[in-house]
Design brief:
12 helices, alpha/beta, globular
Length: about 375
């Protein structure tokens, strides 16, 4: 198990490359796609459809998507980076990444899950560049150090190109975690670069606590959701295992992306392809990683005070213990003698809940929406 926790992960950040050719991968066939269309409802009320999680500064100097763009630009020139998001997010993303060109955006007409949007992106890439290797990143994750991330992805690109595998980046757990999928690694593959890579024996869905403990004991890896594959190989595996998606891909050329997204079923890439394919591998990362999945994540990614609190914004703590407080805009949060709370104040909304229920916030919002 890793013992280094992710704390203040952006301390070593550097400026985005000015040059379009300043990157780590010298080949001309590696592309980066950034999944940037999510809402991040587990960070409500700070995260909203108009300003989702990836545009927030969650204890970071800049919005999460800015840091993700920095990672992407360390891998490939900016003209080979594509941000996958809805039209409603183009302007908000441009406001924090003003140097992006129109071609850097591939606008999905509607959100249908990661499988359809990555299938669509792979089809577009394969048409642009038949030899394309696609690196799929999430816009709202934290990881460090950048150098180890670049080394890991470079190794994965080489394996994907050499062995025609669909690759996931796996991270060795540093705690028992029920919120992540786990990967059971099998046969080790021929070395490529510095990172170890393996065939995947099995993907395992998010476990209960007892099962997660067993996974850690057996050396399973967390599935980061960072994927690397040839665009052509993903399209082949979609045709084998997800015909409900691949059979609709011709609509993109015949009728346009709107027709494809209107008809394609909602699905995620893990279940649609990764769990079904026999051409799947995992590259073991050495970098620290967190998907920042809920308010609880701030207790891992930020420096705690002497009483294990995290406070961001205009917050005053008096004898509070084990609490997470996030304040934005006018106003102030004062916690006195409280324990294990999450308190969030944004504009005219204040949310208070036990830390133990932070992962249930999305379900609460669904009920609130249904009651309207």
């Amino acid at each position: 198990m890793r013992t280094t926790l992710l704390r203040s992960p952006l301390a070593r950040r550097s400026s985005l490359p000015e040059s379009k050719t300043s990157c780590a991968t010298p080949d001309t066939h590696t592309w980066v796609t950034i999944l940037a269309g999510g809402i991040g409802s587990r960070f409500w009320p700070a995260s909203t459809p108009e300003r989702p999680k990836q545009l927030l500064r969650l204890g970071t100097k800049e919005p999460l998507i800015v840091d993700t763009m920095r990672r992407a630009a360390a891998l490939v020139p900016t003209e080979r980076i594509r941000i996958l998001a809805g039209e409603n997010l183009r302007s908000p993303i441009k406001s924090v990444l003003p140097n992006l060109e129109r071609d850097n955006f591939w606008i999905e007409p509607q959100a249908r899950g990661t499988a359809p949007v990555l299938a669509w992106a792979a089809a577009k890439l394969a048409k642009l560049d038949p030899e394309a290797v696609m690196v799929s990143l999430h816009a709202d994750h934290l990881l460090d150090p950048l150098e180890e991330f670049v080394e890991t992805v470079a190794s994965a690109v080489e394996v994907a190109r050499r062995d025609d595998l669909l690759l996931s980046i796996g991270v060795s757990p540093d705690r028992i975690e029920t919120g992540y999928g786990h990967i059971e690694a099998g046969e080790q593959l021929k070395a490529a670069g510095l990172a170890k890579s393996f065939r995947v024996k099995a993907f395992h869905e998010k476990p209960d606590e007892e099962t997660a403990r067993g996974y850690v004991d057996q050396g399973y890896l967390w599935n980061t959701g960072i994927f690397i594959w040839k665009a052509s190989v993903l399209l082949d595996e979609l045709s084998r295992h997800a015909q409900e998606i691949s059979d609709l891909l011709p609509l993109i050329n015949n009728e346009g992306a709107d027709a494809f997204f209107e008809r394609v079923p909602v699905s995620v890439i893990d279940r649609a392809v990764m769990e079904r394919s026999d051409r799947v591998g995992v590259v073991e990362a050495t970098f620290n990683w967190d998907d920042v999945g809920s308010w609880e994540a701030l207790s891992r990614t930020q420096v705690l005070d002497q009483l294990d609190n995290v406070s961001l914004g205009n917050v005053e703590l008096v004898g509070a213990r084990g609490s997470i407080a996030y304040q934005e805009g006018p106003g102030r949060i004062v916690l006195m003698g409280t324990e294990d709370l999450v308190v969030v104040q944004v504009e005219d909304t204040t949310m208070v809940m036990p830390r133990a229920r932070a992962s249930q916030l999305k379900e609460l919002l669904d009920r609130m929406e249904g009651a309207r």
